[in-house]
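Model the whole thing, not chain by chain.
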Amino acid sequence: MFLTVTEEDGRASLALSGDWNLARIGELDAALSAARLPAAPLTLDGSQLQTLDTSAALTLLLRVAAAGASIGGCVNLKPAHMRIIETVEAQAGVRPAVAPRAWGIVAGIGYAAVAFARLALAHLDFAGRAAAGVAQLVRHPGRWRWKETIAQLQHVCIEAIPVVALVSALIGTVLAYLFGLQAEKYGASIFVVDAVAIGSARELAPLLVAVIVAGRSGAAFTAQLGTMRLTEEIDALSTLGLSPLQVLVLPRVLALVASLPLLVFVGDVAAMTGAMLASGPLLGISPAVFIERLHSQLALRHVFIGLAKGAVFGATIALIGTRAGMTVGRDARSIGIATTSTVVRCIVAVIVLDAFFAVWLQQVRL
Amino acid sequence: MNAVEADSIVTRINGRTLHDGVSFSVPRGKIVALIGASGVGKSVLMRELIGLARPASGTVRVLGTDVWSAPEDELNVLRRRFGMMFQDGALFSSLTVAQNVATPLRERGGIPPQLIEPLVQLRIAFAGLPPEAAVRLPSELSGGMRKRAAVARALALEPELLFLDEPTSGLDPVTARGFDKRVRFLSDELGLTVFLVTHDLDTLLGIVDRAIVLAGGKVVAEGTVDELRRHDDPWLRSYFNPHGT
């Protein structure tokens, strides 16, 4: 339908007909491969050819070359079509063919291990720079970015209070309920207060708050700084003689270090309030008894350990989040990837640190 | 027959009239430039031609289709018949150049998979990019190469008409002239109609067949570059004679 091959006296000719264009490229390719082109110079007859575009011309040339044939001459070919064939012939024929390298499993593990080591080193390096930046701030308090820090405090602390309070209160209620069911069997309902108070002050509130903040603020830091890097705003800051570390990173780090203990305190109060409200109807522990028991059993060191852990978690989340933002690749997709990995890394780092604290504090008997 | 016909286009942005009855046509097979001072609404006009921004009134016919009254199906057919190069390329940043060019081909459907790679390479060669650029990401390309990659993507579906928004802005003169030559080559060899918005006097003098001058919301002059040189519009006079000699 698109072509006819004729052979006369050892001279092969290929007559093209109809519309040779991208819209019919599938049919053209099939027709060409079905045509059994002779492996000899072909004379191209274009008298019936209506249209020819570069895609069709390329398909023709590729199929002719694949058959071992060549174009020996042309008859009745319109000048415009001739030109297209010549142009395509001149422009095509370059084959870089860069195939992605396939890795073996051992090499894959090796690369992943090296990548992990590099990542850990990069975080350590960034933490070091941030610490040096803080040391500089101590020496030159005038460089302290108050406004930026306060704005960040507003975002990461004040605006997080409702969600922290709600989640902690619910978890406190759930804990009181769970412990209550067990403790009641032994007639030891009152120990629910000890469990909820110590558990939430020391472990649960700091972890819960850190996870919430990692999702809220860690991700936001990465997205904000990543976008600024994408639009070259961070480069602009450096060019203006401002240190991105001082202007962007430290206010966020310090804001989170200051906010996390405050949020942990909110979490403590909310969790205990939730537990107190649940134990009344559930276990018959009145609020007055609950508070009395809380007072006698909850040593202040548990609360302070929780708050201190919060500060460490805050620094960790802020450093991971800002570092990911400052080092994001210069395309839209990598901001998404960096934001996701910030949240995952923050949560993993917080839990690893928490486990470390649990072991260490046990050793020093706190 | 004209590739583009714009008839009495009126555009209002935030109550301000940007175009007040703009009419012009772009003949097939020619390179036509739209010129005018900054802020006169050249890019907005281009967006109206390709169906991205709706004019307050007026009609636009591109390749015989009325852009602002055609049903969506017909518009999608039309969109495959023209290519657009955005000012900074607007390449998909997470895809390599070859993947960028392959995207319209793959989305179109009906193209044998083994043909996609050679077709992509041909487009890349047409745009004047070295073949090794195909595996790079847009962020690894220079500004001039990004524009060429954008042209390669615009050429993917064998367009009859190519829209270029500021093709040479931000390029050094040597690269810019190389880009101009490519545009002329595409127009001459593939019979493409090219409509471009430009500020570049050298592009205008070098490769453009006709120019349309937009000022004060109207077309103040239209013709070959030589005709425009003799025009007495004050903006045109200072445009062609920027140093006031």
